[in-house]
Structure formats: C-alpha cells, structure tokens
C-alpha cells in the first residue's frame, strides 16, 4: 500500500479494487442493455427501475458510481442529485443520461457535481469511458479518506504537549523558541518534538506541514 503522504498528495487511480456500477432508468430495455455492456468489461452492475429501489438496496463499500436517467416518473434525476447534495455527505459520483437534454440541464448537473452527462443515444465506448473515469475518481476519494483516517489515528496518539509542539514546528519555530513559548526546557521541547515526529511517521518537516494542513482542513489539528 502506498505511504500516507503519497495517498494524501497524489492518490492512485490504478488500484485493482473492484468497482460497482448502479444504474437507475425507468426503461427495462435500456437497463438490460447497460447491464450487458458494463458486464462485458468485467464490472459489477446493479440496475433499478426507480430511485426508491436504488435507495433501498445495499451498497458496496468499495468504489462505485451511479448511472442515472434524468427523466424518471417519481422524481427527476436532477432532483435526486440536489437532495444528495443537501445532506452534506460525500456520495458516489453520478453520470447522467437523458434523451431530452439541453445545455442548461447539463450545466446545472455538472455544477452540482455530476462527473458526466451523456445524451441518448450514446456510443457504448462513451459510456464505458465515463464509468471507468467515475470509478477511478471514487477510488481516489476513498483512498484519501482512508489516508486521513490513518492520519487522525496517528494524531490521536500524541499527548497534548506533543500536539502543541507540532503546531509550533509547522509555524516555523526552532526548539529554543518552542521552549520559550511553552515555558519548558529546550531539551524537553526537543524530546517532545522527536517523539511526536516518530508517532506521526514524519520523514521531514515538509511531511509534517502537509499532514498538519490535511488535519487542519478537517478541523482535527485546530
């Protein structure tokens, strides 16, 4: 597995972990055609006739994406996308497809976070390419999340004093300055710094800065 900093700065999108594709379309023939197409490239596929059926189904914990028709009888695909965004929680990437799309609809979907918008009829290769890109995007997102979880776990092993020292280090302070600021001996500051760097598995101050930036962005090191 790549080290933590690799995942945080440039997450891999070539992981061979299986991806799952979910399809929601009210037309059975289209669902069958998409299932056949995507399974032909060795992807796991689950198809649903409605958003309600999709919501009720179990989800894969691995990388996934949703191929969603815009026009659905009970709720439009765009309305469902909006409802997902309002939860404030990350969700699988969405690829929209429609037989009656226009530029305004496409712009709205993309601004709301859709990864692609395909007009029916679309080329098989266009759908395959869009799905592969979406799965790679989600794979990278999950890798970043795992890396951040590991980073939070490392940060939690530091004592409050060690955490304070680390914050001073990323502010550019030397051991002597840290000691003066905290009211401790310089050798004590040096010891805390060394222990914290080992616990965080930092190879350099630059590594520490990137880690602290990631934690700060999540509110863990503020």
The name CATH uses for the topology of the largest domain is: Rossmann fold
**Tally of discrete structural domains:** 2
Please estimate the helix content: 55-70%
Q: What's the main sheet like?
A: 5 strands, parallel
CATH architecture of the largest domain: 3-Layer(aba) Sandwich
**DSSP helical segment count:** 10
CATH class descriptor name of the largest domain: Alpha Beta
The best one-word shape is: elongated
Per DSSP E runs of 2 or more residues, the count of β-strands stands at 5
Protein structure class: alpha/beta
Mean pLDDT: 85
CA-CA gap between termini:
29 Å
In CATH, the homologous superfamily of the largest domain goes by the name Response regulator
Radius of gyration: 23 Å
Please state how the strands of the largest beta sheet are arranged side by side: 2-1-3-4-5
Oligomer description: single chain
How would you describe this protein?
The chain is an alpha/beta fold and 222 residues long. It has 2 domains: 4-146, Response regulator (Rossmann fold), CATH 3.40.50.2300; 157-217, Winged helix-like DNA-binding domain superfamily/Winged helix DNA-binding domain (Arc Repressor Mutant, subunit A, Orthogonal Bundle). It is built from 10 helices and 5 strands, in the order αβαβαβαβαβααααα. Strands 2-1-3-4-5 form a 5-stranded parallel β-sheet, with helices on both faces. Helix 5 (103-111) links the parallel strand 4 (94-98) and strand 5. The chain starts with a helix and ends in a 5-residue tail after the last helix. Residues 1-16 have low confidence and may be disordered.
